[in-house]
């Protein structure tokens, strides 16, 4: 009887926390939408999203964030392209090749990497990656989109490894004895069994990493130059989160500039929602084909 009461209390607590989390997210979305609405009363949504000029303090203010949106997506996708093979490869090593003692050493190190403040990554990127580009590419300033993608990829690799490793380890333990009994090599088992059955966890890691990449502010802001121009691989760019962080403190409350920054945050939330929805649909379609 006592266990049933405790189970019921636990179940209701989880339900309450879940509802509370949904309500908090809903109210955040409503607040940002409310603060953004005055902008869209003065400027059309299409003009704001597709506009290429960001001059909120000019005599005739122009607020367009199309280059900033492109830069945000470009740098996030590029960081995923760089980090995904490294992250999956490290997860394969930890789950299939590393000894138990090696895992005990490396796992805490990876967990520690996820807890390092982003400003530290940005500082190291500024001192190492930016200086490398200045010295080897004859650039006046090494701050660029590629620098931001490299720093961001280093930051999200631990997320990909952590998400994939446990899943791959469980699959290996499940199928390893059968594979060896059939005379299947470890390489074949990894490529045909472990990686294929880890597809869901790999896709989940991409979703988590992409969400982190799209919202990352400080580390990226320190190495990309923060210029709201059309993105080029070795050119200075600006992300939506960087734009908000840099200008929110100086924007007059209630001004068009102020509401424009909130509208940028609203667009970022919608962008993350759209990308996650697309990935969910792709995941569902691919699983249906299997």
From TrEMBL:
A Gene Ontology BP annotation from the UniProt entry: phosphate ion transport
Transmembrane intervals: 12-33, 64-97, 109-133, 145-164, 202-224, 261-282
Places the protein is found: Cell membrane
GO terms for MF: phosphate transmembrane transporter activity
Pfam family, one: BPD_transp_1
UniProt-listed InterPro entries: MetI-like, MetI-like_sf, Phosphate_PstC, Phosphate_Transport_Permease
Keywords annotated in UniProt: Cell membrane, Membrane, Phosphate transport, Transmembrane, Transmembrane helix, Transport
Chief location category: membrane
The keyword Cell membrane is assigned to this record: yes
Keyword Chloroplast attached: no
An example Gene Ontology CC term for this record: plasma membrane
Family: Belongs to the binding-protein-dependent transport system permease family. CysTW subfamily.
Known role: Part of the binding-protein-dependent transport system for phosphate; probably responsible for the translocation of the substrate across the membrane.
Identification of the protein by name: Phosphate transport system permease protein
UniProt organism field: Asaccharospora irregularis DSM 2635
Highest classification ranks of the organism: Bacteria, Bacillati, Bacillota, Clostridia, Peptostreptococcales
């Amino acid at each position: 009887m006592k266990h049933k009461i405790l189970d019921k209390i636990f179940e209701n607590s989880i339900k309450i926390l879940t509802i509370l989390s949904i309500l908090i997210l809903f109210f955040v979305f409503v607040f940002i939408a409310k603060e953004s609405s005055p902008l869209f009363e003065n400027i059309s949504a299409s003009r704001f999203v597709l506009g290429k000029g960001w001059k909120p303090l000019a005599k005739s203010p122009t607020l367009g964030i199309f280059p900033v949106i492109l830069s945000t997506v470009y740098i996030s996708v590029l960081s995923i392209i760089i980090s995904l093979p490294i992250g999956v490869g490290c997860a394969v090593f930890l789950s299939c090749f590393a000894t138990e003692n090696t895992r005990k050493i490396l796992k805490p190190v990876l967990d520690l990497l996820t807890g390092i403040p982003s400003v530290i990554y940005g500082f190291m990127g500024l001192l190492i990656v930016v200086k490398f580009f200045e010295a080897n590419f004859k650039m006046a300033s090494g701050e660029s989109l590629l620098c931001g993608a490299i720093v961001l990829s280093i930051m999200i690799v631990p997320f990909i490894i952590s998400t994939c490793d446990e899943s791959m380890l469980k699959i290996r333990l499940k199928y390893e004895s059968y594979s060896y009994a059939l005379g299947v090599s470890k390489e074949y088992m990894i490529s045909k069994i472990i990686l294929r059955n880890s597809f869901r966890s790999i896709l989940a890691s991409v979703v988590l990493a992409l969400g982190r990449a799209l919202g990352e502010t400080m580390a990226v802001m320190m190495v990309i130059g923060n210029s709201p121009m059309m993105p080029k691989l070795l050119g200075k760019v600006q992300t939506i989160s960087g734009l908000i962080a840099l200008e929110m403190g100086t924007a007059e409350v209630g001004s068009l500039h102020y509401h424009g920054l909130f509208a940028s945050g609203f667009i970022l939330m919608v962008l993350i929602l759209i990308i996650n929805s697309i990935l969910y649909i792709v995941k569902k379609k691919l699983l249906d084909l299997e």
